[in-house]
Backbone:
């Protein structure tokens, strides 16, 4: 695991983080979102700009300002780091970053918000954190920036994002808090050579075909037909559990906001997962993204359903043995059709930052997610949320995963693949525990689903969804 540290930031950050942890430890955890942070006064409108808008002119009042970003050790963030010198050269704004494991990224940001330490200006918002961060007042609505002519690039074009991405990753209760960044859909990655050697001319179209036809043919000699990343944590709850219930007609909640895991469709998907395990590595409940990606890349697994952002690992000869064999398809269909996983992030502006840092952070977010930089970002290894980039014939030929990715976002995207309300982290922990126990056989699928239904309803009831205290937003 890489040690987290700020680029160009010294020991002061560590001291401030310790202070934040001490403060947080003195306060009991609550199921309700924290009270909104006290926000700095809205920045005064930047000086009127003479002539045509340019990034350099917009950044002049903020030259020398330093901003701090939360990054992950994933291809999309390395791509952003590669492009950063251009932004810094144009603007004179210093962009620092801290690379941290995903598993720690929410906790560290929440400690920063609640401790009012102001360590982070550019906030990383997972799709399932947007409700919590917005409702708690930890990130600021972006309209204060994109409605300011001095800060808003005339070519911003919010309508140029895939609608499902701007809606799911950046918007809560009809207010935009983040711009889509490092966006994913689940994709079926497969080893074309392994499939051809087994007599298949393409990947399975349905989950049942994967299990009943491809599974027996490809699971032999220490190799496996499929791997479903299922380590306890968000990987279990989102990448494994939720991925299985949707294509079989299930869901976490029904149309009345009631837990729905004991429905026929949800149980069918979870029981299917149990049956599919005979064609997976025996320790699959210990496999996270890295193990799953490496399983395919090293030729030990024939197929995986993984985030599109991991494509760079399969096409790099230094990390993959199947560069010439990698294939892509939409995730298999269940009885109700394909329901590929949806995941990713947006970048937002911290409510704790000074007005100058907020403006500088907005300029960076606007630039790194822009249509103008989308192709460069993709070539550097990122996955852009901009529709125009995927229409480029040269990029389409260079990146064949574009086709299933775009189809998934446009035709099958599910904005509530995981609910985005503030209670999801608590629910996710429960699913991760019981979902793992289901896979290990220490609790039956039916008993586990009943237990989760009861626990989830209690959480939502205490939060005020059934009494009308809180709107039923997902």
Residues:
């Amino acid at each position: 695991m890489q040690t987290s540290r700020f680029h160009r930031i010294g020991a002061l950050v560590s001291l401030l983080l310790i202070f934040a942890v001490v403060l947080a430890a003195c306060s009991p955890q609550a199921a309700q979102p924290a009270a909104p942070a006290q926000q700095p006064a809205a920045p005064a409108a930047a000086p009127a700009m003479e002539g045509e808008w340019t990034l350099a002119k917009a950044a002049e009042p903020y030259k020398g300002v330093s901003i701090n970003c939360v990054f992950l050790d994933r291809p999309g963030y390395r791509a952003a780091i590669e492009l950063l010198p251009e932004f810094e050269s144009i603007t004179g704004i210093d962009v620092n970053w801290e690379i941290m494991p995903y598993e720690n990224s929410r906790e560290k940001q929440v400690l920063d918000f609640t401790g009012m330490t102001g360590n982070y200006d550019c906030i990383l918002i997972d799709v399932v954190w947007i409700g919590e961060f917005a409702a708690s007042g930890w990130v600021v609505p972006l309209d204060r920036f994109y409605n300011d002519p001095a800060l808003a690039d005339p070519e911003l074009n919010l309508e140029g994002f895939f609608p499902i991405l701007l809606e799911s990753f950046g918007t809560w209760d009809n207010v935009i808090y983040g711009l889509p960044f490092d966006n994913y859909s689940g994709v079926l990655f497969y080893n074309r050579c392994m499939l051809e050697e087994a007599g298949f001319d393409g990947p399975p179209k349905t989950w049942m075909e994967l299990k009943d036809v491809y599974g027996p043919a490809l699971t032999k000699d220490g190799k496996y037909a499929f791997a479903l990343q299922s380590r306890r944590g968000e990987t279990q709850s989102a990448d494994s559990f939720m991925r299985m219930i949707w294509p079989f007609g299930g869901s976490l909640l029904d149309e009345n906001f009631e837990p729905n895991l004991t429905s026929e469709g949800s149980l069918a998907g979870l029981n299917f997962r149990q049956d599919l395990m005979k064609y997976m590595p025996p320790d699959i409940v210990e496999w996270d993204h890295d193990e799953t990606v490496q399983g395919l890349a090293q030729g030990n697994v024939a197929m995986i359903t993984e985030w599109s952002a991991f494509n760079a690992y399969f096409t790099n000869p230094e990390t993959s043995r199947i560069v010439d064999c990698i294939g892509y398809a939409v995730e298999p269909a269940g009885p109700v059709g394909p329901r590929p996983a949806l995941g990713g992030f947006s970048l937002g502006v911290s409510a704790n930052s000074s007005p100058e840092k907020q403006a500088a952070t907005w300029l960076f977010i606007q630039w790194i997610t822009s249509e103008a930089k989308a192709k460069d970002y993709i070539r550097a290894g990122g996955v852009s949320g901009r529709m125009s980039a995927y229409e480029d014939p040269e990029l389409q030929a260079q990146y064949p995963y574009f086709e299933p990715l775009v189809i998934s976002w446009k035709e099958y995207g599910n904005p509530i693949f995981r609910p985005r309300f503030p209670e999801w982290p608590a629910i996710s922990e429960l699913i991760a525990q019981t979902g793992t126990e289901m896979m290990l056989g220490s609790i039956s699928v039916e008993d586990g689903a009943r237990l989760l239904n009861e626990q989830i309803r209690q959480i939502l009831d205490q939060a005020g969804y059934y009494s009308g205290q809180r709107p039923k937003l997902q």
User: Anything to note?
Assistant: The chain has two domains: 36-183+343-412, 184-342+420-463. Residues 5 and 14 are 9 Å apart (CA to CA). Residues 1-45 have pLDDT under 50 and may be disordered. The chain has 19 helices and twelve strands.
